[in-house]
Amino acid sequence: MNTHVAPALPRFILGNAAPGFAELRSGNLGVRLAVSAAELDAVQALRYRVFYQEMGARADAQTLAAARDCDLFDEVADHLLVMDHDLGEGPNAVVGTYRLIRESAAAKIGRFYSSGEYDISALNGFSGRKLELGRSCTDAAYRSRSVMQLLWRGIAAYVFHYGIDLMFGCASLNGTDPDALAPELTYLATRHLAPAAIRPRALPHEYVEMRRFDPAKLDARRALLALPPLVKGYLRLGGFVGEGAVIDRQFNTTDIAIVVQTDLVTEKYYRHYERESR
User: Fold this and answer.
1) Where are the alpha helices (DSSP H) in 93-140?
2) Is residue 18 a part of any domain in this protein?
3) Among 46, 91, 205, 223, which one is least packed by beta carbons within 10 Å?
């Protein structure tokens, strides 16, 4: 369990339960949580543009008519926003998002989103506080390292505020052919498999073997470079992957389970928060 004691964070908005905090700014960009229905609508519109119009997810009639990516988890989650204030304020400024679901929020529905693809019973047995991450995307014009770092700083502030000990969720590799993703999947399964005590496992009817060939033939450096930036970010924070991949044909992706114990996240940003609090 993470026993790290966080400093006071007076400059961050850290959830609807803690209104009145200013957002974290970096030039014209800021990161904070959505605080209105209009901002949630902007999040869902951004996700629709990225997932359906750009990445080829398959929309049903209702999704197509609304031009929104939404599900029942949106109403109980917190939604981290990246805002470009050069575009204005509020909904018009939303250029990036991350969905955050704490245990108390998941309890309102009766499950976490990830449980639709993975057996997360090992995580349910973990004694610390858990946070599910998902539905991450940014507008095409904002896919830079600085924007990703800003999102992670917001997540770290959220982790501090709520005393989160473990984060998990599903991350995606583009495409639904696991053989085309063989180097990446084999690399993750052989180099970053989660310890058994916190290892999700793909549900039996969804399970796709991640070790696609003999690991001795693996070019690890090339496989790492081929991974999506978000997955590489998890690995840099000491993250692990679960056992087995899942093909998500609706979203045109191959999903993997990610698990990150938050000690490294909080340590990475601790000095930054100390400077800010001064």
Assistant:
1) 103-109, 121-124
2) no
3) 205
Q: What is the rounded average pLDDT of the residues 48-55?
A: 96
Cα–Cα dist 48/71, whole Å? 12
List of residues 6+ apart from 236 with CB closer than 8 A: none
Q: What is the CATH classification number for the domain harbouring 53?
A: 3.40.630.30
3-state secondary structure 153-203: HHHHHHHHHHCCCEEEEEEEEECCCCCCCHHHHHHHHHHCECCHHHCCEEC
Taking each helix axis as running N to C, give the angle between helix 229-236 and helix 145-162, from 0 to 180 degrees, rounded to the nearest 10: 50
Rounded CA separation 91/98 (Å): 15
Residue 145 has a CB neighbour count (10 Å cut-off) of 9
Residue 92 predicted with pLDDT over 90: yes
C-alpha 80, offset from chain centre: 10
Residues in CB range of 275: below 8 A, 6 or more apart = none
**pLDDT tens for each residue of 107-140:** 999 999 999 999 999 998 888 999 999 999 999 9
pTM of the model: 0.88
CA distance linking residue 69 with residue 46, whole number of Å: 8
Greatest CA separation found in the chain? Answer: 54
In the chain, how many domains are there?
Answer: 1
pLDDT in tens, 154-213: 998 999 889 999 999 999 999 999 999 999 999 999 999 999 999 999 999 999 999 999
